[in-house]
Structure formats: C-alpha cells, structure tokens
C-alpha cells in the first residue's frame, strides 16, 4: 500500500481530488486529501500568513496519521505548499507531482496583484464582484464552454470559502521564495502537470518548473486550464499512475 497525499488549490478544499481519490483507493493506495489552513474543515487560526505554517500543518497531520514517506501531489496553492514542505521537511517524498505551479517567486507586479486581491476580497461589498471577475479564469475556455457544471462547482466552492482565509492564503503565497533550488535538490521521480488553456501559469513557467526537477517530466493536458483534477480527472489520474509506476510502488 502506498500513501498518496493530495493538496488542493486556493479557495477550494480536499474534495477537488474526489475522482483521483476514488480511483487510487480502488487500486489499493491509501489517499490522504487534506484541507489546508482556513479551508474546508481546517480552522484558519491566528498565525501570520506564511506557507511555512501550512507546510508544518501538513507535517503534523501526516504524523498524526502515521504517514512517514508518501507520494505527494499539489495543485496551484497546494503545489506551493508542497514545495515549501519539500524545503522544510526533506526526505519524506517518494515522488512529487506539481500541477499549475511556478517554481519562481512572484514578480513585484504579481505580488502586488495578489495583495490587492487579498484586500479586495475582504472589503465590504467587494467580494461578489471580485469572485465573478477572477474565478472563471481558474478553468480553461473548453471547460467553460463544454462543461459549465465544472465552472459552477468552482464558483460555488469559491463563494463558500472564508474571505479571511482566501486573503490569508494570497498574502502567504505572495511572500513565498523562489523554490528552484529546492526542486533541484528533490532527487525523486517527479512530474509537472500543466493545462494547455491555463490562463494563470504559462507554458514557459511549467517548462522551467519541470526542468528544475532532476527526475522531472512535463505533461500538458489539452482542453484543460488551471484546475486539471476537476477539468480532466481521468487524464490526471493516469498521470499520477504513471508517476507511481516510475516511483517503483504498487502499479496502477
């Protein structure tokens, strides 16, 4: 039995991995999909915004479940948490999958944009307009046109998320360091998954992230945007199975 740890994207929660959790569990793996600080069932607490805090939360949660080493996958914010976890808790990953994430720190312009978003999402009367403007970009054009129920689900989850938690997470992400050296030191089978229609992370950024991983590869999913586990669940499951095979664990 292999432990597979799944980390969700910003404004969502662990249920975004439901299809992958169902498929991998059926194949005999133990899947640990956790709610990150402030989302789902996890309280926000009063710590200052920092992905270090979230990575240490994850370490404690895994310790409590008796999970030592595992295969990890993180989507968007979950990928930034995973890269932070790799830096702060080395030696616990048998394999790594990063979805919709860049290894680089934010540019000054991107950082300022995140901080403006954090301020706006918590400003009186601004939340609905901010979500309506930004949330549709989390999925690709094909998903918006052909699978509107996916966008509806993302809009519902984003609308239900605690604005204070979203702002906290955006401020934490804005302060993250460049993780290129962390990835270069990650000597395990690794995979970067990108959406061909991702409007937030460019193809060049995905290639850079994959190239930083000594045993990394890149899978680009056509017809998907930023949230491939929801937009193309079967393709993501297949990619995770391929990574598990490369890691030499029980085959899918």
Structure description:
48% of the residues lie in helices and 13% in strands. It starts with a strand and ends in a 6-residue tail after the last helix. The longest helix is centred in the N-terminal third of the chain and has 14 residues, at 51-64. It is built from twelve helices and six strands. By secondary structure, the chain is α/β, with parallel strands linked by helices. The protein has a single domain, classed as Alpha/Beta hydrolase fold, catalytic domain (Rossmann fold, 3-Layer(aba) Sandwich), CATH 3.40.50.1820. It is globular and about 50 Å long. The mean pLDDT is 96.
| Structural domain count | 1
Radius of gyration (CA) equals 17 Å
CATH superfamily: Alpha/Beta hydrolase fold, catalytic domain
Q: What's the CATH architecture name?
A: 3-Layer(aba) Sandwich
CATH topology: Rossmann fold
Secondary-structure element series = EHEHEHEHHHHHHEHEHH
The average pLDDT value, as a whole number, equals 96
Inertia-based shape: globular
The number of helical elements comes to 12
Secondary-structure-derived class:
alpha/beta
The tally of beta strands, per DSSP, is 6
* Through-space gap between termini: 11 Å
CATH class: Alpha Beta
Beta-strand fraction estimate: 5-15%
Give start-end ranges of low-pLDDT stretches: none
The major β-sheet equals: 6 strands, parallel
Spatial order of strands in the largest sheet: 2-1-3-4-5-6
Helix content: 40-55%
